[in-house]
Amino acid sequence: MEIKKIYIGNEKEAFIEKRFESNMNIIFSDDNNKGKTIVLQSIMYALGNKPIFPSSFKYKQYYYIVVFSINNNEYELMRKENSFTLKSSKGINIFDNSSELKRYFSRNIKDLPVIIKDGYSKLVDFELVIQMFFTPQDKRTSSNIIDSNYYKKKDFLNMLLNLGGLGNKSPESSIDELKKKLKELREEEKQLRKKSKTIKKLNNESSFINLSTDFDSFENRIKEIDKIKEEMVTSKKLINRLITRKIKNESTLKELRSLNQVLSTSEISCNDCGSKSISFKSADKEVSFDITNVDMRRNILYSIQDKIQSYSEEVLKERANYNEIQLRFKELFKLEEVTLENLLLFKDEIVSDYDLDKEIIDVKSKITETKDEIEVAKIKEDKNQDKEKNFINGIASEMNRFYKLIDVNGNLVFNDIFSSPGTQYSGSENAEYFICRTLAILKATNHDYPLILDGFRENEISTNKEKIIVDIFRGLSNQIIISATVKEEELQKYHSYGEEKGINVIDYSVNEDSKILQKSYLGEFTEKINDFYVVMNYEG
Amino acid sequence: MTYIVNSTEKTKGKASDFETRALLYLMALRKDSEEMNVFVIDFFNDVTSLNDDHQKLWDVQSKGEKNVSADKLGKELVTLFKNYVSLINFDYYILSVEGISDNILIDASVDEYKTSNIKSVWFEKVKNSLKAEALIKTYIDNSLVTDVNIASFLDNVIIKENNHEKNHYIKLMAPISERNMPTDDYLDLIFKEIRDMQMSKKNSLVEGEVIQNVSDFLNYERHIYKNEITLMVINRLVNSDIMNNSIPVSFMPELVGLQEIETRDLLEDCQLDSAKLLFNKNLSRLFWGFMNGIIEEINSGVTNLNTISSRVIASNNELCSQFDEISVKFFISNILEGLVHGN
After folding, report:
1. pLDDT per residue over A131-159, tens digit each?
2. How far apart are CA A45 and CA A64, in angstroms?
3. What is the DSSP letter of B3?
4. How far apart are alpha carbons B44 and B8 in whole angstroms?
5. What is the CA radius of gyration of chain A?
6. Among A252, A291, A300, whose Cβ lies nearest the Cβ of B287?
7. Helix/strand/coil (H, E, C) string of A52-101?
């Protein structure tokens, strides 16, 4: 897979990057805020990643079009919020959400990995696939996957195992242990619910009639509450819409199955000779062919089942998102600036006890996870446990090997793909961790996605180490796109990479500070958007 | 005029495959395929095609054998010869075979030729073998088995080595580009449908029946119209996976002004309605009439969706009134996309 271009914009301003080449690309600038992160995040977002843009960037206001190629076929994928439109040599297809997109992608463009989740085998979403080959500038956690909400660490590991040709197995616990764990979790949930009922509503004594001396911060709090409330409403609306569409597809599926009924199950034969070769003539003129054949019917039924599955997944994801928004909402009410006025206004949203609710949600989530694990363990016998351990350990070993290449004197030792919970690498160690992990995963899975690292030399990796890293990347057959903020005196060095090492260097120093999108790109951007038959509605 | 129906037969397996190849050769591989209107199965011969007014006839005998020798060739020509000497004026006499032995041919690189392509020594064998076979057939008046008739017949006969892949015929039957073509397995399934339909026509008893006019074949339900096959193939190819087709270009103006969510919902609703239309076996007769209307408009050069829709909806009200107009338009636009815009 190769990224060729990225378009970002709306009817007022745009930016287009089309200088990517198939080998190694370095985007650099002598300062921050030159748009490097926005460009790389836009590529990932267009491909289906969750948005991790800088907070100052109003990403929802823009359209994103990424042009990429796979196996010499070129594709253009446009995203606006949750809607995707794909243009290829076969035409234009619109997708309601990333789940639909990934199904089409996996069937028609490139296989995606499969894992067991929520009790059934499912295609992995782009937001998880991307974490194999993309390292963002921010939210780099070495102990977990980025934005672990719907997907968890173990899903990432299972994805790697699937790519390595190994199955999705339950973790090492036996089925009996899991069942015991499930029983305990259920008991815990029962106790928590009992407690919750008897605890009084949010204690008002300390939280209101504390007329804040800082009116601004109080007003900000109100704005935050408003914003979160809006998010909740939007999320709820989306959930309702997804459920409605799912129901519509389900009822159509039922109708199709009834329309397809073969009415007769009896057989006729000639009384004289017993032959079954008898033709039946009805009063109406017969038609020679059925409207559809078996393949057509199967394709249609399968596609609708696929859609239902997509909607189910999206509902689950959106519910997880809604829960997270709810938690944030409740968090606000813990703060002292909440007034009686607020409480009266939002009294419907107040819950009996914030901490208990959080605990209950946590336990429920663990129950679902444990059920998943039991299901997985039941489905297949775990004969390949050793193989899987070896595979994961193999990746950790490769991480260590790459680490030693890059940092001969370094002290880090990787025992696993992720650092243990509570351990978080920082600074240049964090950068090295992500580089080593990306390279090791590439080696183990032999995938052909591009390697994209935003801020690859975070916190100033030494010149020597940087040289080694660049040379390692250059030697790979995958496309590489990395970004770096460099010192002014290093600009020349980076420019010289182009001639000396055959690297495609893209200098963003000339970009205006914090203003990568410009009117000057509008003409070309609008032409590209028109290819998708989109009439832009600028949402201010 | 009288004609007696003879030498009809039940066939199995490979033989029936080759009879379908013979039918599809007539339908799609000849320069004059456009003139053909109806195919009669196992009546005059294995397959016989007629034009609109039944005045022009193409008669085909099929043999699913490779390396047919001169001797065998002569024998296989006997039913064509029977028709040659009958009171019906067939315009073409065609033997459709898997292959003729290269040894007996002057130019073995061609796959359609007259008997002048047979080396003279083998041609004599063909002639003698045909004559001998014709003389023993009870359904040929021996007085008509003369050297003059045999020579004249052999002058007219066309031999077609008809051994293309099954999917090759199907691909030629609808103007659909390679990139939009379904898989070969899917195309083979369509071939099988045509074959099964063709074989099912043989279920009635016609051996020994006497007809006075060529058009009397219509009374025996052993015919199929070319248009029926064409419509079926187009439907199979264009709508093979209607839920996943790209947005038809001609349908895009219908989406102007809609918000993104409305667009997605509308497209999905139209696809679901199309699925219901395709699945409803009770609507078969109406459906094929509806498809015929769409194809006729496209064949007459009309490619504007609104024009086609208004005409087709008006003349197929019984079917179209069961669906939203926008869904019907969407269905029509898919056909347009498959046959016109998507190529």
Report:
1. 999 999 887 888 888 877 788 898 999 99
2. 8
3. E
4. 8
5. 28
6. A291
7. CCCCCCCHHHCEEEEEEEECCEEEEEEEECCEEEEEECCEEEEECCHHHH
Q: What is the pLDDT of residues A299-316, one digit of tens each?
A: 999 999 999 999 999 999
Backbone torsions φ then ψ of A77, nearest 5 degrees: -120, 120
Phi, psi at A160, each rounded to 5°? -65, -40
Residue A396 CB coordination number (10 Å): 18
Q: Could A259 and B276 be called an inter-chain contact, meaning their C-beta atoms sit closer than 8 Å?
A: yes
Residue B6: band (very low, low, confident or very high) from pLDDT cuts 50, 70, 90: confident
3-state secondary structure labels for all residues of A382-397: CCCHHHHHHHHHHHHH
Chain B residues with beta carbon closer than 8 angstroms to that of A536? none
Calpha distance B22→B158 (Å, rounded): 13
Q: How far is B272 from chain A (nearest CA, A)?
A: 7
Distance CA B73, CA B126 (A): 6
This complex has an ipTM of: 0.87
> Residue A264 contacts by C-beta under 8 Å, 6 or more apart in sequence?
none
CB A219 within 8 A of CB A349: no
Q: And the tokens for A282?
A: 């009805």
Closest partner residue to B275 (CB to CB) among A95, A252, A285 is A252
A289 and B193 within 8 Å at the Cβ level: the answer is yes
pLDDT of residue A501: 81
- Six-digit token pair at A314? 């999206």
Contacts of B343 (CB under 8 A, 6+ apart): B175, B176, B177, B180
- For A100-121, the DSSP string reads HHHHHHHHHT----EEEETTEE
Question: Cβ separation of A291 and B280 shorter than 8 Å?
Answer: yes
Q: How far is A50 from chain B (nearest CA, A)?
A: 19
Q: Is the dihedral of CA A328, A334, A340, A343 positive or negative?
A: positive
| CB burial of residue A194 (10 Å; 0-12, 13-18, 19+) | exposed
Q: How far is A289 from chain B (nearest CA, A)?
A: 7
A193: which 2 tokens? 């619910």
DSSP A388-424: HHHHHHHHHHHHHHHHHHH-TT-----SSSSPPTT--
> Measured between CB atoms, which of A96, A256, A290 is closest to B264?
A96
Q: Which of A246, A247, A289, A306 to mutate to test the interface with B (most CBs of B within 10 A)?
A: A289
- Cβ distance B284 to A290 less than 8 Å, yes or no, reads yes
Q: Identify whether the C-beta of residue A392 lies closer than 8 Å to the C-beta of residue A377.
A: no
Q: Closest residue of B to A284, CA-based?
A: B285
Residue B26 CA from chain centroid, whole number: 6
- Tell me the three state secondary structure of residue A455: coil
Contact B193 A299 (CB under 8 A): no
